[in-house]
């Protein structure tokens, strides 16, 4: 099994592309879904966020108010780094546990959505291929304003907090342009799926795992044999 990283900018359509992979029977891991679970009431991350940011980021139902928290961290680099330090290690650990689960379930490859894949760099070494989803900057702003009820200034400020799309594209193996309609996005995504299905890397990876496992078992058996021969 190998991992395909899916990234992009804010409101470029990563979730749309991820859903197309899912519809095609591909195992996917959604970082945003995991982030919500990591911050569920009572978790260690939830307690640390509440302690550091205060009760103002906790809504009446006890959950973290992500809109309020987002407004705080996107206007303060130090607080944004603190939030990342609290949540990112736990999110990454949960994602890798899911990846191992998919591996033992027999999946040839999985698609892992990591919005800050290049910005943090922590997950890059696990990625066999990387897909970046892009769209026109005006569309990003428009979608953010519509989705989160942001002003254009706020939307642009948040977009600028991330690595420019041009830099992400230069570091990627595939690019999906989500500026058009859903049929265009689907066509591009399914074209990549066909290429990934033809990849022989999964068999190479499985062979390495098999050989490593057999070598380990042989080593244990050899040690046991020598031990009993001495008795």
TrEMBL record:
InterPro entries reported for this sequence: Depp_CoAkinase, P-loop_NTPase
Alphabetized UniProt keyword annotations: ATP-binding, Membrane, Nucleotide-binding, Transmembrane, Transmembrane helix
Annotated Pfam families: CoaE (PF01121)
Gene3D superfamilies: P-loop containing nucleotide triphosphate hydrolases
One CC-aspect GO term: cytoplasm
Residue intervals passing through the bilayer: 203-225
GO MF terms held by the record: ATP binding; dephospho-CoA kinase activity
Gene Ontology biological process terms, A to Z: coenzyme A biosynthetic process
Family: Belongs to the CoaE family.
PANTHER family: BIFUNCTIONAL COENZYME A SYNTHASE-RELATED, DEPHOSPHO-COA KINASE-RELATED
This protein's name: Dephospho-CoA kinase domain-containing protein
Species of the source: Pieris macdunnoughi
């Amino acid at each position: 099994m190998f991992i395909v990283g899916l990234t992009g900018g804010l409101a470029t359509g990563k979730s749309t592309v991820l859903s197309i992979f899912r519809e095609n029977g591909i195992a996917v891991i959604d970082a945003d879904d995991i982030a919500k679970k990591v911050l569920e009431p009572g978790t260690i991350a939830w307690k640390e966020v509440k302690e550091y940011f205060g009760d103002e980021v906790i809504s009446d139902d006890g959950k973290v108010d992500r809109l309020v928290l987002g407004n705080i961290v996107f206007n303060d680099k130090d607080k944004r780094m603190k939030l990342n330090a609290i949540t990112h290690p736990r999110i990454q650990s949960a994602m890798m546990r899911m990846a191992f689960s998919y591996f033992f379930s027999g999946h040839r490859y999985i698609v892992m959505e990591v919005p800050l894949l290049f910005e943090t760099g922590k997950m890059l070494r696990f990625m066999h291929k990387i897909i970046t989803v892009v769209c026109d900057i005006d569309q990003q702003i428009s979608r953010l304003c519509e989705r989160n009820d942001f002003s254009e200034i706020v939307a642009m400020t948040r977009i600028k907090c991330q690595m420019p799309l041009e830099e992400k594209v230069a570091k990627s193996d595939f690019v999906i342009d989500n500026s058009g309609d859903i049929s265009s996005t689907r066509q591009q995504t399914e074209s990549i799926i066909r290429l990934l299905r033809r990849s022989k890397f999964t068999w190479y990876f499985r062979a390495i795992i098999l050989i490593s496992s057999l070598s380990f078992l042989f080593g244990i058996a050899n040690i046991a044999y020598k031990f009993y021969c001495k008795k």
